[in-house]
């Protein structure tokens, strides 16, 4: 008669020899106080990986929900009253959230095949929302400072890329990107700057905003094919707007100084327009508009 330990060893070896079914991996490491962490993995025949780490601090919340094969999600929190959630509902998604400071919030929702989302928050009261519904979508947000807000929406199309970098206080960035092989990027260094980039369908479109200063406003709206728009702002209280609907268009606005206003409208193909205000000499209060058809 086999001894109990021998039977147990044989049973364990038999189980290890079986092929892995779900290959689901979940890990939670909590080292602070009064924090909550939840991982939910539903019916994943090819498996998934989820990891939550909550370090020094208290009152934080972390949630990972996975219903997609080969999904990978990671939340790393330290500090007080942080909130993070990752929801993955399709195959091959990858999402990471890294939080330091206090009172930051991040929400990532992926309904994509092979989407990638990255969030890094180091400061106080910052918020990020990322929604991806596009195969091979990419979104990356970095926030350093206080009370900054960033939103990226990639609802339809293929191979889209969005990036936002914020360092300061009270900056707001919104990106809405759809179509094929389109990209958008925003950089805000300063206080109370606002930017919005909207790309509606089309292909190989690019919108870029770079803001250094305070209380600047920039908006880009693109449709068509192989067009690009860029707004660069330094100074205070400047406003810039670009609308481009067509193929092969290029538009640039560069603003320095104070309280300048500029707008470019392109309604046609093969158009190029540039506006520069107080980027070389001090001043302000200028008005400029270009309309091309």
TrEMBL record:
Pfam families in the cross-refs: Curlin_rpt (PF07012)
- Keywords, sorted A to Z: Signal
Q: Where is the signal peptide?
A: 1-22
**Which InterPro entries does the protein's record reference?**
Curlin_rpt
Highest taxon above the source species: Bacteria
Question: What protein family is recorded?
Answer: Belongs to the CsgA/CsgB family.
Q: What is this protein called?
A: Curlin associated repeat-containing protein
């Amino acid at each position: 008669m086999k001894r109990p330990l021998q039977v147990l060893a044989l049973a364990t070896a038999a189980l290890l020899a079986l092929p892995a079914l779900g290959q689901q991996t979940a890990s939670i490491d909590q080292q602070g106080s009064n924090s909550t962490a939840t991982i939910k993995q539903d019916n994943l025949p090819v498996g998934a990986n989820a990891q939550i780490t909550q370090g020094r601090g208290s009152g934080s919340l972390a949630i990972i929900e996975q219903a997609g094969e080969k999904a990978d999600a990671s939340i790393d929190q330290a500090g007080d009253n942080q909130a993070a959630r990752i929801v993955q509902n399709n195959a091959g998604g990858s999402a990471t959230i890294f939080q330091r400071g206090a009172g930051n919030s991040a929400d990532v929702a992926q309904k994509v095949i092979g989407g990638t989302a990255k969030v890094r928050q180091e400061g106080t009261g910052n918020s990020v929302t990322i929604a991806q519904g596009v195969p091979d979508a990419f979104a990356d947000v970095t926030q350093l400072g206080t009370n900054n807000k960033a939103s990226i929406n990639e609802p339809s199309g293929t191979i889209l890329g969005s990036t936002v970098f914020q360092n300061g206080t009270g900056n707001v960035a919104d990106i809405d990107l759809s179509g094929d092989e389109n990209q958008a990027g925003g950089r805000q260094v300063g206080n109370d700057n606002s930017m919005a980039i909207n790309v509606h369908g089309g292909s190989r479109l690019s919108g870029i905003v770079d803001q250094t200063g305070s209380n600047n406003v920039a908006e880009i709206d693109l449709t068509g094919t192989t067009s690009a728009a860029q707004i660069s702002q330094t100074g205070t209280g400047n406003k810039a707007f670009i609308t481009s609907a067509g193929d092969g268009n290029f538009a640039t606005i560069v603003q320095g100084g104070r309280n300048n206003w500029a707008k470019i409208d392109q309604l046609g193909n093969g158009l190029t327009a540039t506006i520069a205000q107080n980027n070389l000499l001090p001043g302000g209060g200028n008005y400029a508009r270009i309309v091309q058809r």
